[in-house]
Each structure stands twice: as structure tokens, then as C-alpha cells.
Specification:
- There is one protein chain.
- By secondary structure, this protein is of the alpha+beta class.
- Strand 6 and strand 7 form a beta hairpin.
- The longest helix has 69 residues.
- It is elongated, with a radius of gyration of 37 Å.
- 26% of the residues are buried.
Length: 416
């Protein structure tokens, strides 16, 4: 019995480790995040179903689709990006209101007494007063500033919407990776627990043989040393489970008393793309679809509109229209109707207007920098696609070897 235990312990451990890396489940696909359910609606499992992961007597079991939904609605980074998009939308609405007039209704009373200078230069002693009740309407249209500012604000709002989609994608990816880490940690913990049980049995068998005179004390000590090492690995495996659970909980922004447990027994391979697809086609699709590129292009187009405001927009005149209408008289008891209208066109020359070369140089630099940013994002996307394609092919090979090794280990275990 002792010889058999010694022989099949490594086989069982290898089978458990390989099984944690491979499963022949159905292919799944990631989808865009949808509105997240309430954490209170997640399924609960009894405490202790996963060793080293029980907090407060209950654990929350989540699967990958639930994790992806929570990542789309509860992640703090996504919520911050969403607020940035709302701010950009509000600025766009505000910039589009440049045509609206300013209306100032009110009451005005003036009283003058003492010496004043007349229009002919003489000083006279006067005592007069007047009152006005009505509204002062002002329409100031900085045509070039208004047009290009509204255009830039609209393009930045489009860029922030693309940022939100990129934030959804990034949060879903990080949540999925954290879930897979938790799933792997739980599998390693199960293998560590099984190893402790087996080495404990090994110690009992060795001790029993020594008591009947058929064993050596050195074998007992060696078996106990192996058991102690297995318990160290067990403690580390449980620690990894707790750390992985905390990291996933943080990404999903769930309460601190929630302990997450992966509901699936083993990780399943996700087939998101055809591994035999031409890499050039994948890069072309990524460059056309990735929201990070749309965001960078939106910022670049907004910078171009701001530059056009300093070169073309300043050529448009500023239109100013003022109108006063209401009742006017020498007192509130003697008021008659009155109105006054003024219209003017103005051009600004110099600082902030026509010929402001420093302002134009600054906005032109921002345009060039934003275009360089677009190139950087494109290069990042190409690198990510290329690296992911290589990683996919390597992991497919590794999974094939793992499947073969698991089958061999299981067959070897059956021979003992």
C-alpha cells in the first residue's frame, strides 16, 4: 500500500494541475457590456465551499457573464469616464447657445443734484431725476468664435463617447482576467488540499509500517517533511484565492463584506477570433473598430477646429445689438413709453484677434501633437493585435499539450 501511494501521488497532482488549465467546454464569446444587475441579486453559496475564502458566513458565486455585466455598470473607472462624457455633452450644449440673446429686465432710478457740466462746457447747478422700468436686451454674436467653439465642443463630445466605449471594453477585459485568476487560484487550492490529504495518508501508512517493524524512522520523518511542505503550499494557495477575490471585488466596486467565488469549476477556453485568420485583416478590423482611435481622432479634429478659430474665425466680425424698451420719465408717477436700438460691427486686431501669431502657433502645435497621438494609438493597437495573435497560437499549443498530459496522467493513475 505504501509503495502504491508513493507512486501515484505525483500522477494525481499532475492530473489536477493540468485539469485546472484545460477543459473541453463549449466556446463562448464576449459581448458588449449591458446594464449591470444589483449585487444583491447575485446567487449565494454556503460559506466554506471554497477553502480560505469565507467571510461573514456567506460567499457570492459569480460566473463570467455576471462579472462582465457588473464591470460595465459598477466599475469606478467606467463611472468616471461616463461623468466626463456628460461634462463634454454639457459643454457642447453650452457652446451651441452662442446665438441666444441676453435679457436683463429691471428697474432703474437716477437722481442728480449739484453742479454738472453741460454739453457746451458751462457748469450749471441742477436738481433732476428720472426713472426707467423695462428690459435691456443684448445680443452679442462673436460669429467666428461661436461657430468654431461649438464645432470643437461637438467633436470633443464625440471623443468622450468613444472614451466611454473604450472604458467599457477595458473594464470588461480586466474583470475577465481577474475572474480567470480567481478560477485558477481556486483550482490550485483544490489541488493543494488533495495533496495534503494524500501526504497525510502517506504519513499514517509509513508510521503504521514502522510500528510493526517493517519501516524505517527516516521514512516517517521524510513523509512528515513532505506533509509540512504540502501544508505550506496549501496556505499559499488559499492566500492567492483571497487576493484574487479581493482584486475582482475591487474591479467590480462591490462592498467590502462581499467575498466572490468563481461559480465555474474550471476555466473554459474563449474563442473570440479565428486563430487562422490573416493578421493583416485583424489589424485592419481593429483600426476601424477600436474606440481609442475614434477618441484620438475626435480630439485631433477638435484641435483643428480650435486652430481654425484663430485663423479663419477671427475674420468674421462681432455683431452687437442692444435694445432698451420700457417706460421712462422724470419719476415713477410720470412714465411714458420709450425705446432705443443700437447695432454695431467690430473686428478685433492684435491679441486674441487678427494677427495674433503666438495664439495661432500654439493651436497649430496642439493640432500636430494630437495627430501624433493618433499615430501612437494606432501603433499601440497594431502591437496589441500582433501580440495577442502570437499569444493565442502559443496558448493553443500549450492547451493541446496540457490535454494530452492530463489524459496520460489519468491513465497512469488507473494503473496503480
Amino acid at each position: 500500500m505504501l509503495r502504491r501511494l508513493t507512486a501515484w501521488l505525483p500522477c494525481l497532482a499532475l492530473a489536477g494541475l493540468l485539469a485546472g488549465c484545460y477543459t473541453a467546454g463549449n466556446n463562448s464569446s464576449l459581448s458588449a457590456p449591458i446594464p449591470a444587475p444589483s449585487p444583491a441579486g447575485l446567487p449565494l453559496t454556503d460559506a466554506g465551499s471554497v477553502p480560505g475564502c469565507a467571510v461573514g458566513g456567506k460567499q457570492v458565486a459569480v460566473d463570467l457573464p455576471t462579472v462582465l455585466r457588473l464591470a460595465g455598470g459598477h466599475n469606478l473607472d467606467v463611472r468616471m469616464i461616463r461623468e466626463g462624457m456628460r461634462e463634454a455633452h454639457a459643454k457642447m450644449v453650452h457652446a451651441g447657445q452662442w446665438l441666444l440673446p441676453t435679457v436683463k429686465p429691471g428697474v432703474r432710478f437716477n437722481n442728480v443734484s449739484g453742479d454738472v457740466q453741460g454739453t457746451d462746457g458751462t457748469i450749471v447747478d441742477v436738481d433732476k431725476e428720472n426713472a426707467f422700468v423695462g428690459a435691456h436686451v443684448v445680443m452679442e454674436w462673436e460669429i467666428g468664435e461661436g461657430i468654431y467653439s461649438a464645432l470643437a465642443a461637438q467633436r470633443r463630445a464625440d471623443a468622450r463617447r468613444a472614451d466611454l466605449q473604450a472604458g467599457f471594453n477595458d473594464a470588461a477585459l480586466r474583470a475577465a482576467e481577474a475572474y480567470m485568476d480567481l478560477l485558477q487560484a481556486q483550482g490550485e487550492s483544490v489541488v493543494a488540499d488533495a495533496s495534503c490529504v494524500l501526504y497525510g495518508t502517506f504519513v499514517e501508512e509509513t508510521t503504521a509500517q514502522a510500528e510493526v517493524g517493517g519501516g524505517f524512522r527516516g521514512d516517517i520523518l521524510a513523509a512528515k517533511a513532505r506533509l509540512a511542505h504540502a501544508k505550506v503550499l496549501q496556505a499559499k494557495a488559499r492566500e492567492h484565492v483571497q487576493i484574487a477575490s479581493v482584486r475582482l471585488r475591487e474591479i467590480l466596486d462591490l462592498p467590502s463584506h462581499v467575498t466572490l467565488v468563481a461559480a465555474e469549476p474550471q476555466p473554459a477556453p474563449l474563442a473570440l477570433i479565428d486563430p487562422n485568420c490573416d493578421e493583416r485583416n485583424l489589424i485592419a478590423e481593429a483600426l476601424a473598430a477600436r474606440p481609442e482611435i475614434r477618441s484620438a481622432r475626435g480630439d485631433s479634429r477638435a484641435a483643428l477646429a480650435e486652430h481654425d478659430r484663430t485663423t479663419t474665425g477671427v475674420l468674421f466680425p462681432d455683431v452687437r445689438v442692444g435694445y432698451d424698451g420700457g417706460l421712462f420719465g422724470d419719476g415713477f408717477s410720470d412714465l411714458d413709453g420709450t425705446s432705443r436700438l443700437g447695432v454695431g460691427l467690430e473686428w478685433k486686431i492684435g491679441r486674441g484677434g487678427i494677427g495674433d501669431s503666438s495664439r495661432q502657433a500654439a493651436t497649430a502645435s496642439r493640432v500636430r501633437r494630437s495627430r501624433l497621438r493618433v499615430q501612437q494609438v494606432r501603433q499601440t493597437v497594431i502591437r496589441e493585435v500582433t501580440a495577442s495573435k502570437a499569444a493565442l497560437q502559443a496558448r493553443q499549443t500549450a492547451m493541446s499539450h496540457a490535454q494530452s498530459g492530463a489524459a496520460d496522467a489519468a491513465e497512469a493513475l488507473g494503473l496503480y
